[in-house]
Amino acid sequence: xxxxxxxxxxxxxxxxxxxxxxxxxxxxxxxxxxxxxxxxxxxxxxxxxxxxxxxxxxxxxxxxxxxxxxxxxxxxxxxxxxxxxxxxxxxxxxxxxxxxxxxxxxxxxxxxxxxxxxxxxxxxxxxxxxxxxxxxxxxxxxxxxxxxxxxxxxxxxxxxxxxxxxxxxxxxxxxxxxxxxxxxxxxxxxxxxxxxxxxxxxxxxxxxxxxxxxxxxxxxxxxxxxxxxxxxxxxxxxxxxxxxxxxxxxxxxxxxxxxxxxxxxxxxxxxxxxxxxxxxxxxxxxxxxxxxxxxxxxxxxxxxxxxxxxxxxxxxxxxxxxxxxxxxxxxxxxxxxxxxxxxxxxxxxxxxxxxxxxxxxxxxxxxxxxxxxxxxxxxxxxxxxxxxxxxxxxxxxxxxxxxxxxxxxxxxxxxxxxxxxxxxxxxxxxxxxxxxxxx
Length: 439
Known about the structure:
By secondary structure, this protein is an alpha/beta fold. The protein has helices at about 5-10, 25-35, 45-50, 65-70, 105-115, 135-145, 185-195, 210-240, 245-250, 275-285, 290-315, 345-355, 390-395, 410-415, and strands at about 15-20, 35-40, 75-80, 90, 125-130, 155-160, 180-185, 205, 325-330, 360-365, 395-400, 420, 435-439. The protein has two domains: about 5-205, Rossmann fold (3-Layer(aba) Sandwich), CATH 3.40.50; about 245-439, NAD(P)-binding Rossmann-like Domain (Rossmann fold, 3-Layer(aba) Sandwich). The protein has 14 helices and 13 strands. An eight-stranded mixed beta sheet has the order 3-2-1-4-5-6-7-8, with helices on both faces.
């Protein structure tokens, strides 16, 4: 029986969510909130164990929310992919990184589908939420199902619905964010909407999976290009001796035709630094050169070097060489008030400072120890420097890379000798002349 029919009759249904990370875990908890049993699948046994004990490993998701779902019998985690046979729908939320050549790496999607094939059951909805290039659902997933003799829209219902998670965003609750849904066929769309209408207040149906895939990329490319623009404007304004932050504050008073974007030390998170290049790669198949996207990428990835150059300048002005200077980077997470360090520009700043011979340390109240990462394994196990007057006053320079709310800016200004502020965090905090330098 199809998912839509089961839901219409009020029957109990279960949904498998593959990937218990920043996207998959919220999806599973959203299902549990509506009374739908969610089975969270992941290859990481440590994550599975923590979840079944009601413990969260993501700061902005409370352990209480997980334990409530577990105690109610509406959520459990497992490493056993055969559990998908119990489910009416399967939601795939696995990573889609780039290779070192900035080409899409779909290995997680492919391996997930291949692991699922022996355990699929008729009438299941299979929904991909991982960000990817237009055509992935039809070109990568659909053929694997059809090779086994399944008819899409009859035996199985294939859907693409891009994630719209924003870790730590308290303004938009999970259910209130509209959900874009595209299906391989009209019947697939119907089943996809039946699933997502249970966990979202509003759904946005589109005519194909390709449209849904392109929608996600456009959302993130819009941000990447505009951030690239304002970062370039920061470089120009800096050379002219103009405060770009003051310019933005003035410009955003215009009630039409202007949307403020803010400069920073580079792009972070899984989406903005990576997703644009999925479209750039795919566009080459159609002999299109996406110059705006690539230029924005070049500008945004150059910002950590600009920050380090500013550190070099201020140390020189203070009569100090970079080699053996102590530099503290504040904020390892890519955005304020979360523990998400994916693609964080702070890593690049720390790497560059280290290459120049600096004694580099970091402080982040949300990341007490740096876990293993794919690209920055050299920092694995490094402890966050304790926040106190002794440690901060011992630094030759402090770089504000991520402006967490937990930081006492008054203490920072009282204790630190030189501060390079990449976030305009100290705009309203009194400081000594020449102590704070914007970058």
